Amino acid sequence: MIMTFTVILVPQAFAQEFTKSTFFENVVVVYDLKLYKESGNFLMKKTSGDVEVVVGLQSTSTADFNFSDKFIEKIQSENIVQSIVFTNMGEIDHDGYPVGCVPGVKGDEQCIMINLDFTEIKKFFTDEDKQQIDGRINRVHTETQRIGNSLIEQVNEELGINAKFHSVYIQTAMTEYSEEDDETQQLVSAVYISPKQTSYNLINNFSKLILSDKITTGGGFYDIAKEFSRDETRNLTLYSGEITGKTITPSTVSLTIFPTDDGVRYLLSTSVIYRNVASNIAEIDPLEYLNITELQRSTYFDDEFVPLDSLLDLIIVTPENEPIMIGSANTNIIEKISTVSDIRNKGWFFDSPYGSFIAGKFLFGETSSVTNDELKLEIIPWDGNSQVEIQSSVLEDMIEGEIKEEPEENQSQYVILAVIIVVSIAAAIYYMKGYKR
């Protein structure tokens, strides 16, 4: 489950006005210290934990992600479309062979997935479909491919790719094709494939075709994403399914397009997984696996006070019987957020600083960079009962009534911003896999 909460921020009068950009950059670092891994029908023990890193660039503006108006209108005209995902992701199966984004896709192929609302697809069922043994599933395949085919030509043109139809893939585990609504959103995908490109070539192509100059020349997290796409092994063995030994996976590039009620959201991400590398985490340096000693924001944000548009997420997952806690931090701890004043100084905001699931975000405040020494955290075992060193940060909701009671002529001085902060392992997996919800 992805946990979210909303922060209502009411800024006072500052030298720089608090704003929210259309562009957002995010790094997620996940320490997965669970040592047992499924392999076929067996449960095998690994020697060390894994570290997953994903760098994401998001926007809600075609000024940042240069898609044509025709393309956007086409997506929005199909209310059934939940997302369109491109990914060159590959995984190693239980037999050690590379496989693609969905079953049947080979390791040397990349995917475009046009994800549709399964509930809406079921509305195409006819009485004849319901009477036939395979009527419903055949209708799902027919309608999903029809809708996908109506979009793929435009998608190919925008991305500079020539993907061909591969299959229809139902992303949720369902055995019946009933017309009853399910609380869980169900997706069915029209899958299209093309020869796999390297992540570096993809980032370069997307930089020319899609990303604005303001992003590609702004440095920051974009430079990290591009560096990861080079697939340097960093003195590690390339992962091929081993349970032991330090390895690194090839990078994955994913581009996701989400239609929303008021427009479209775009997400471009690059990710890698370091396997069997995390054995001793008495001290965490979140930048260690980014291979940098300083994390810099994009110059996109120069001369703006946008403290929530560059974020570093840290997630640590341990076995349930081995809880830990954050003993100390080398920089400021943001104990609460209720006004903009609370995020003017850079620091850590911890939603969960102890237990078997640690989650925190680093906010830059008014600064443009942070060093690895500033980000380091001390991690110590926790028995589940003793006093914890660092408490969970608090979000104090502002009372909207206090704003509404202001005279109308004074209300314009307030900026009310709802920020969704995602703090779960599912969020990291969502970023890395691109299409998983």
Structure commentary:
By secondary structure, this protein is an alpha+beta fold. The chain folds into two domains: 4-66 and 197-433, no CATH class; 89-196, no CATH class. The protein contains eleven helices and 27 strands. The strands form seven sheets. Strands 2, 5, 6, 9, 10, 11, 12, 13, 14, 15, 18, 21 and 23 form a 13-stranded mixed sheet that branches. β14 (252-260) and β15 (263-278) form a beta hairpin. The longest helix has 25 residues, at 135-159. The radius of gyration is 23 Å and the shape is globular.
Task: Give the termini distance in whole angstroms.
Answer: 9 Å
Binned, the helix content reads 10-25%
| Strand content range | 25-35%
Q: In total, how many domains does the architecture comprise?
A: 2
Contiguous low-pLDDT stretches (5 residues minimum) are 1-15, 173-183, 398-437
Draw up the topology in text.
Blueprint: E1 4-9, E2 23-32, E3 36-39, E4 42-45, E5 49-59, H1 69-77, E6 81-87, E7 91-92, E8 98-99, E9 109-117, H2 118-121, H3 127-131, H4 135-159, E10 164-170, E11 187-195, H5 199-209, H6 213-216, H7 221-228, E12 237-238, E13 247-248, E14 252-260, E15 263-278, E16 283-284, E17 294-296, E18 310-317, E19 324-329, E20 336-337, E21 347-352, E22 354-355, E23 357-363, E24 369-371, H8 372-375, E25 377-381, E26 394-395, H9 400-404, H10 408-411, E27 417-422, H11 425-433
Parallel strand pairs: 2-18, 12-13, 20-26
Antiparallel strand pairs: 1-27, 2-5, 3-4, 5-15, 6-9, 6-14, 7-8, 9-11, 10-11, 13-15, 14-15, 16-25, 17-24, 18-23, 19-22, 19-25, 21-23
